[in-house]
Amino acid sequence: MRANDIFLAKVRRQEAPRVATGSAVSMVTTDLMDKVGASFPEAHLDAEKMAALAAAGYAEIGFDNIMPLFSVWHESAAIGCAVDWGEKNRMPTGRSICSSISETVSIPADFLTRPACTVPLRAIELLRKRFGDEATITGKVFGPWTLAYHIYGIEEFLIATILQPDRVKQVLDQLVEVTAAFARAQIDSGAHVITVADHCTRDLCSPMAYRDFLMDIHKQLHERIACPILLHICGDTSDRLGYIRQTGIELFHFDSKVPAAEARRLAGPDLALMGGTNNMRIVRDGDDEQIARDVREKIQAGIDIIGPECALPLDAPWRNLRAIASAAKECDPS
Fold it and tell me: Rounded distance, CA 33 to CA 318, Å?
């Protein structure tokens, strides 16, 4: 089976000759940039450099999927947030455009044709042309909860969830259209699957808030996005995995704050699981023995796709990622 076939089978919890490998989010490090000759910030802003750097996830690391969107700011920049695209060793940052939840942001009718969106769309086209169905081209969009942080600021938005819940629902209903539109454009450009990243982790969003504000929206995204969804939420999500199961989303990309065996139990038999490998202790600082042990633990716990828990620390060695991919492919699934 091709890498893409194995990855997609595991996303759907179907049989495959081995466990899959990969990441739903950025798998880029500074030494990987050096190896392929494409670096930040240009790789956020130039489609060919973005595609070249993303391709290393498959061609050099050996993961089964390719993820070309390294930043959290693309659609927010297209909406109008001022973005500093960072440096080789620093991820982008941005500023909100509304100071009050009472303000209504105007979504530009042409936001999909602005460079922050056209660059990743073109990169996906280039990757699909180069790899076809050999590896899984993975698009990425941000959910309306995260977009609201970017537009209104985290503090303003979270206070509003308590004081103005009806207004928050209006904001989410508006911003989910951005998420859905960008996802559809990435599918049209050649993405096989879409990561939906939404930063509704425990320290920013209670399980009740997830249930009341986001569960139906994530369910709606599952119905509206015509490919498998990889939902990514950082942090300890053990208190909302039961709700995530009810969205119909195919796969959850989980954090090491949830032990792998516990994540598998909470996810139930139908929700596929990806990630869970600690970025600092294993991906950045681990040796081959620690990496192999972690991979075996994940496979024994029933994790479907082996890989990092979140976007990589830029100072992690890319060879540790290759060691993860190799250990997963060599591990006896029995």
Answer: 9
